[in-house]
């Protein structure tokens, strides 16, 4: 069965397989949420409910944990997630101006996704690359010493590539 | 980089291949573990760590040996060894460097700790934001298991120690030890009241020793070389070295490991190479969002846990951000409060509500709407939060505001009374002006001004009506001749 059909039927085999493979089921919720997000890109309500039933815990606990941690997304993100570092080192070297330039270039504000679903703008807290400040990450790729003038080049790099 | 540096925690970083256990073994790796398991009793191991005077490198500086001793003496069938690798302070990257450059030194130290306190299970809580560290730690754990340096019956002895990774999910408060343990248990990372301390009742209610990465990175060297050797570095109360992550407006950014007691000036001027672009030093921020800003007159202070605390800052994890005359200290305080207000877990009201109020006051001041009474309120409320918040995050979150108010009061007064930002960083408090010698009269600024406050004929110098200007900065951004500046 295709993945969409399995999901429609309320079946998430990846989550089952991952949970079953854990040697220690104590404290499994966060690893399971990580896995679910890796597979589905975000944590839709149905997935959260499924995890609650699977782990035999209240759905409110799953929701509470999913919303507590900033790495978990409850909404679908764009194909390319532009994250500007707003850690201290990047801040004093002008990352706010870089963020503003991305917002201007893409026409959406921080935490928003472009209407074609290509880009989501966000911010991150320190990736530990302070020597390269200010730092921008697009998905897993790191750009260092970014100036507002570089923003258009970075966006152009991904335009025309299409989705992942 | 410089002769003044001494490498203990970073001894192997950049020297060995972090993905090769043989490289680590070739630099006497796992010798200390063998010495403990075959030659020393658990209490003797604890004794060496106690005598070394090693203190927690994650921030508060609690004596490591006391933690180990308490966990050792608390009877229990199961005990845990935890490693706090949730390096959340913006501007700190020493733990990342150790995890990526020398992962085995952390594993070895945790196994030594397990032997000392009687634990057979260890967990490294590592940030998911550090994918390379996660990968290298996993490689290291697998390699050590293959050689029986971890797992059951280590090196053929009776001692067994299993280690696994646990990934965080992006919450600053999880660097606080009780929050971290709640997170490992699969819950929201909210702290709880201490005591009981983790060494008595920690993970799943069992005695748990939790130390930071850099603390563990010192352990094997201490066991191998003896506590007297370790005490030959640093100061009486703070022996050994400390790694600092030097960043911001200095010429040389990067990690610096120096003996405790080294003056700030040595780090910033000699090792850091001074301030970039010939600007003037204004302050150095230590300790991340929990720390404070230290001004030029205290640059000769020898760094240790006590001296930084007396300056209203703290050691923290060792982030060190250098600021120059273009940085507005009120704006910096606001930046940190924005961070802590966002990262507050919300469990206790002093932190959840108090930090929000501090942020509102700072926002008013940087917007030119501050009043004199805001300054006394900032100080009073800040100290109340320090005294009443539940965990280390809340108790230290007012530090950036309180310390800048203490050392840079004149900047606050300029914002409040004169409605001016001396550093020119608070956009609502600076005006824009046209430099007549650079203006070509191209009219671009006038056409882009949303309130039409720029006047001037084509090819003649333009001028800005300060009364109408809303300080949006559009003119400065659009000017191709750099003829519009703040001022």
Q: What letter string, H or E per element, gives the SSE order of chain A?
A: HHHHHEHHEEEH
Q: What best-fitting shape of chain B do the alpha-carbon axes yield?
A: elongated
How is the CATH topology of the largest domain in chain A named? Answer: Glutaredoxin
Oligomer: heterodimer
**What count of helical segments of chain A does DSSP give?**
8
Q: What is the CATH architecture descriptor of the largest domain in chain B? A: 3-Layer(aba) Sandwich
Structural class based on helices, strands and sheet pairing of chain A? alpha+beta
Shape category of chain A = elongated
Mean pLDDT of chain B: 95
- How many helical stretches of chain B? 20
Task: State the domain count of chain A.
Answer: 2
Parts with pLDDT < 50 across at least 5 consecutive residues of chain A:
none
Within the largest sheet of chain A, what's the order of strands?
A: 2-1-3-4
Overall pLDDT of chain A: 90
Instruction: Briefly note the structural class of the backbone of chain B.
Output: alpha/beta
Biggest interface, which chains?
A-B, 35 and 46 residues
CATH superfamily of the largest domain in chain A: Glutaredoxin
How many DSSP-defined strands of chain B?
A: 13
Radius of gyration of chain B: 26 Å
How do the strands and helices of this protein lay out in sequence?
The complex is a heterodimer of chains A (164) and B (487).
Chain A: H1 3-8, H2 13-21, H3 29-40, H4 45-55, H5 59-68, E1 80-85, H6 88-92, H7 95-106, E2 119-124, E3 136-138, E4 141-143, H8 151-158
Chain B: H1 21-26, H2 31-39, H3 42-52, H4 64-73, E1 80-85, H5 94-101, H6 103-117, E2 121-126, H7 131-146, E3 162-167, H8 177-184, E4 208-212, H9 213-225, H10 227-231, E5 241-248, E6 254-259, H11 264-271, E7 281-286, E8 292-295, H12 305-310, E9 319-324, H13 329-343, H14 349-366, H15 372-388, H16 392-396, H17 399-407, H18 409-416, E10 432-434, H19 444-448, E11 454-455, E12 463-464, H20 474-478, E13 484-486
